[in-house]
Amino acid sequence: MCSLRALSAAAGGVPAAAGLKKSGPISVSVPAQVQNCAVPDFRKAAVALRVWIERGGGGGGRGARSSSAVHATLQSRGTDEEKIEEEKEEERSRSRFNWTTNWYPVIPVADFDKAVPYPFHILGRKVVIWCDKEGQFHCLLDACPHRLAPLSEGRVDEAGCIQCSYHGWSFRGDGSCAKIPQAKPEGAQARACEQTRAQAVALPLLVKQGILFIWPDESSPELARRTPPPTASCVEGEGWCAVETFRDMCYGFDTGMENLVDPAHIPVAHHMVNGGVLGKRSQATALDLEVKAEGPLGFSAEMKKAVGPPSIHTFDAPSRFTYEYELRNIKGARAATTTYCTPTQPGRCRIIVVNARNFMIGLSSGPAWWQIFPRWLDHQLMLNLLDGDASLLHEQERTLVEKSGNQPEAWAKAYFMPTTADRYVGAFRNWLIRHAGKGIGWAPGVDLNLPPLLEKKEDIMNRYSSHTQMCKVCSAALEKFKLARKLLFLVGLAALGVAAVLADPSSRIKAVIFAAISGAIGCQSGSSVMAVTSHGHNRRSTPDLSSSMYTITVGREACEYHAVLLILSLLLSSEILLRSQYP
Question: Virtual CA dihedral for 502, 506, 508, 509, nearest 10 degrees?
């Protein structure tokens, strides 16, 4: 005899609804092949039991009806188990995306200052990046294991290690402790560097297409080595040139990425920026967008055009979106704009823009003597594009949180998107809900609340804090502008002094005019925060003429200082002018 409870378990279970009791062993007359089954052959016995029931085993009448009920129940149970397994498999496929096991862009290498440690946030964790004497980049969590002081406040020592500025502990790129100045040369203290608790946490880094990428999971370095970073392969061929820039924005990753995948806003939000290179409001029109394929790793799509091949668009989850297009008026001309959005902190993100093309390469910025356009100018012109919607996105994401009740899946009820021009936005939001856990995978302990709303637009538009001070190229250009400004004012004051001693009235007037021009140029080169705000506000029809200068912002104090000097120069100029006319 075999226990029917064991057989029913092997066969998927026999419920009480089939006329069997739940408790106590139940013995029945079964075929010999079932009676002689060994314990490891329960599955075979279960199959035999199914066949025996189907053939009416156990007699007719009431017994037959019970057997039919058992058979139907077993079939139903098997179907239910298959459905459950399918649902589990679907759920597993939806949760395959892992936020920590991905490469995230940090900064173009050409803009990285290798002389000092570089602080950064990734998924809410603060890290520090530096370059050693051999030119290798390294990344550690920004906390010294000694007393948790930020390593980003330290320096790169003579050995290429990062040294904490608190007590002088030094750490190698793999996180191992290289030096403890306070440790005695003998005994247990001499071996303190070898202890596990003396090690800092290291994160993988790599450089691809001129961009530094970080892998925020310290537990999977092997997986990081096998995983390629999210770059645009279309620009890796010969004959392509590219220029990159970056900026920290006052809105979160989901808002930033949603904006980057939305081509419909470009001619409106970026109306006449840089002379209208991206269009103007009157060019806003219907867009035929079609998502071709989508899944846990993003989506691919295309925008059909009335003339010519469609533009190819790719969202490489979680951070890259690339536009690929051809120019009709230049044979064989192709271009690609790759935009990255890196989740740094809740309500904050870093945008990286890469513009690449295979034509007019001679007009690109670079180190060659014939490349006359400076990189800082490329930066500022590209950053003009991020001014147009910076303030409205900062407020929009807070309105979305309010309208959706802070429920990410309720975005569709908060938005009204009746046209095909919004299909990419819907595809991104669906990816975020279905495959990415309904939101960003922030590190444990991170405060998920959005920072307070910034009422002053100059706080949102200030490029000095969001770009210049972190960019080696633009910070160097800023120092040159400050020096040039001082020289211009000195020249202007010297011209005023010369004008005071000249006897010829016409020469005096020329000297005064020269002084006024020098003072005006010097004042113009000293940018103000207010200029940035007025240009970034989208209600202006055309950009300010000083767009290439004022965006390297020094601050309000610098503006006031230059204004005082300009007023002084004008007063002196007026006095000399009057004396020349009325001696």
Answer: 180
Residues paired with residue 243 on neighbouring β-strands, in sequence order: 355
pLDDT value at 18 more than 70: no
The pLDDT value recorded for residue 478 is: 86
Average pLDDT of span 394-423: 95
Q: What is the pLDDT of residues 176-188, one digit of tens each?
A: 999 999 999 998 9
- What are 464-478's pLDDT values in tens digits? 999 999 999 999 988
Tally of CB atoms within 10 A around 270: 22
Same fold, 104-224 and 230-459: no
The pTM of the full predicted model, rounded to 2 decimals, is 0.76
Burial bucket for residue 418 (CB in 10 Å: 0-12, 13-18, 19+): exposed
| Residue 43 reports pLDDT greater than 50 | no
**Other beta carbons less than 10 A from residue 40's beta carbon:** 7
Q: How far apart are CA 265 and CA 390, in angstroms?
A: 13
pLDDT for 276-288, tens place per residue? 888 899 999 999 9
Torsions phi, psi for 157 (to 5 deg): -80, -175
Cα–Cα distance between 290 and 313 in angstroms, integer? 10
Note the residue count of the chain. 583
Pick the CATH number of 104-224 from 2.60.40.1940, 3.30.870.10, 2.102.10.10, 2.40.260.10: 2.102.10.10
Hey, which CATH number is domain 230-459, 3.30.420, 3.40.1350, 1.10.150, 3.90.380?
3.90.380
Sequence letter at residue 67: S
How far apart, in Å, are the Cα atoms of 318 and each of 230, 439, 573? 9, 11, 59
Round to the nearest angstrom and report the end-to-end CA distance of the chain. Answer: 133
The distance of Cα 365 from the centroid of its chain, to the nearest Å, equals 25
- Identify whether the C-beta of residue 118 lies closer than 8 Å to the C-beta of residue 130: yes
What's the burial of 570, exposed, middle or buried (CB within 10 Å: 0-12/13-18/19+)? middle
Q: Position of tokens 């500022």? A: 380
Q: What per-residue confidence (pLDDT) applies to 270?
A: 93
| pLDDT score at 91 | 54
Instruction: Domain ranges for the chain, please list them.
Output: 104-224, 230-459, 471-538
Helices (H), 227-305: 253-260, 266-269
Q: From 377, 320, 314, select the one nearest 350 (Cα to Cα).
A: 320
Buried b (16+ CB within 10 A) or exposed e, 75-112: eebeeeeeeeeeeeeeeeeeeebebbebbbbbbbbbbb
pLDDT in tens, 225-260: 999 999 988 777 778 889 999 999 999 999 999 999
Rounded CA separation 47/25 (Å): 20
DSSP 8-class letter at 202: B
